[in-house]
Structures are given as structure tokens and as C-alpha cells.
Amino acid sequence: MKNRIVPRVVELAEGVYIETAIPRENHAALRSGFAGYPSNPRWTVRKYQAWKQGRQWRQALKDGSMAVQEKRLVATETALKMAIAPPEEERTSWRSPLKKLAFSLN
Which residue stretches of 1-106 are H helix? Predict the structure, then answer.
């Protein structure tokens, strides 16, 4: 039997839902992170990660990169455009900045 990721709909707060693959045993930690509660030091790594994801979603909602539409938390168009847009090409210098300051003793 293969482990499959099954997306589930989770109620983060009253009237706010999101579809996620986080297992059911970690949904309470996810909701507590979204609500702004502190983490529990006795949680497993997976629960802590779910709590952290809930906090990130709450911060994204405050920042405007996510919004609630039809009772679902979804990414906004500007956030999607930023995620899809190719990164700007940066001119990289292969020389170290320290080499520019180096001098020879010869």
C-alpha cells in the first residue's frame, strides 16, 4: 500500500477553511498556530511544523498575500504573480570583494 497525500479541508477559524494535506492528528496544532497561540514544547516535530504553517498563513492573511474568498483561505493574485514570475537576473561577480582590496608584498 502506498502512502498517498490526501488533501483535506480544515476549519482554521470560524468560517475560514483551507485545503491541506496535513494529517488529522496535527489539525489542532494547525488551528492553534493560526489563532496565534504559543507552541507546546511537548509536541512532536510534525505538530510543531503544522503550528508553524498555521502562523505563516495567519501572517500571510495579515500581509494581504492571502485572502478569504467564499469561506476559503486562498492566495491573492499578486502573491501568485510573484510566485510564478521568473526571478530577475542578477549580475554576479565571480571575484571576491576581498580580492579587490588585496595587495601583493612582492
Answer: 27-35, 45-63, 77-84, 97-101
Summarised one tens digit per residue, pLDDT across range 75-85 is 888 767 766 76
SS3 84: helix
- What is the rounded distance in angstroms from the CA atom of residue 91 to the CA atom of residue 88? 10
47, 60 Cβ separation under 8 angstroms: no
Q: Strand pairing of 16-20 and 8-13?
A: antiparallel
For the chain, strand residue ranges (E) read 8-13, 16-20, 66-69, 72-75
Cell of 18: 483551507
Eight-state DSSP code of residue 42: T
Burial of 76 (0-12, 13-18, 19+ CB in 10 A): middle
Q: Is the pLDDT of residue 97 over 80?
A: no
Q: Cell numbers at residue 77, please?
A: 493574485
Describe the crossing of helices 45-63 and 27-35 by its angle, rounded to 10 degrees: 40
